From TrEMBL:
NCBIfam families in UniProt: matE (TIGR00797)
Top-level taxon: Bacteria
Signal peptide range in chain numbering: none
Name the UniProt record assigns to this protein: Multidrug-efflux transporter
Amino acid sequence: MLEGIYSRIFPARIFQRGKLKKNGDMKDVLIIALPMLLSMSFDTLMTFVDRLFLSKLGPAEMNAALGGGGVTIVLFSLFTGAISYTTAMVSQRLGAKKYTECARIFVQAIYFSLFCVPFLLLTIPFGHWIFSMQHLDVEQLSAQTTYFDILMFGGVISLVRNVAPCFFSGIGETKIVMKAAFAGMLVNVICNYFLIFGFGPIPKCGVAGAAYGTLIGNAVSTIILFATYFGKRYRNRFGTTLSFALNGKLLKELLQRGLPSGVEMFLNMAAFQLLILMFHGLGSVSATAASIMFNWDMVAYVPLIGLEVATTSLVGRYVGAKAGAAANRVTYSGLKIGWMYSALIGLLFLFLPGVLADIFRPEAADATAASLSIFDAARPHAIFMIRLAILYIMVEVFLVVYAGALRGAGDTLWVMFASALMNWAAAIALYVTAYVFQFSPRYAWAAIVCVYCTAPILFRFRWKSGKWRSKVMLK
């Protein structure tokens, strides 16, 4: 079904694989970006449904998934951020017509992800320590620890799942990533329903069921991508079955260029998780309002990461082909697509904030009176925060497109510093607003949005300066 819809939007004749028939216009970007937007939307929906199901059990379970999942992402981020540069490296080799190196780079990323697993497991006690410092309710602490532990012990699945799409997004064939994500989402939603609520002989597992469902869904999408990677078509073109040798040169390049991206993601995710922890530290009402807001922020923002990946892929490809003008056009095309998407999200946030908040109302049959009371008190704050997020989503378009373009051009170190500075400034703004001046969660969220409004100025200035050209020696 998805294939049919996609083929009607973009007829087969425009897919000239391996040839740069386009020049960075909107159609060129959409060919790569639309499947990635859909792919990230499926991943988002998978996480969103997890939390939606858990919200029916009560705010504690929903907040536990947000808090535990957030710390998991932070601890993964150093590794997944470094791995993500695989897309840029693959796309650069594709542009330079070094096809066998595309597969070799991908394999080095797999080796790197497996090497990271023991170090990831060693961070589990650190996550427990973070939870102990939050002074959470006993119910949320227990659920949050359970959710976190299951995801961390299944870390090898999640790490390889992050590597698997990089090869296909790098070569610009993102439809298979979309299909794999869709399959993983379906499996996850089905498993979560049965595992969270129980069905027949399957016991009610609550947050543990949500974590297991996530791992199962990730495993399914990963298997699909690897089965495609080793298929005849990619064996013939890229030599995928002959790429298993360890290549020190390519691995070194991945580490040199990818680690700044990993550090950037770690610092960004740590700052974002700190925002969540500080909102949770303000009490159950603030925690619930923030959880509702950040769940909808995830729905709005994560698909934009697909646009970021597409921008990185295309800019990297044109960089490899020494086509600087086309790389520049890709960026502006990405901004136009992002603004159209954010306008649609903005309409929902503006006119339906109450409906969006009420989706997370606990079911009366499963929730306690205290849970319903907490939700009712949090609802007005959540509505205000959702409406204000309209501006936030518009700003995020600048952030993801320019950051993706700069990464594709190899300017990862600057992106690391700029992103970290902005995200930690937002965390500081929240602390000052909520903890020093003791303003309500509404004003704390407003302070965060104001900080993020610096993104268009900062990132556009860097791109317009043209300093990224020196990173790849484009003339």
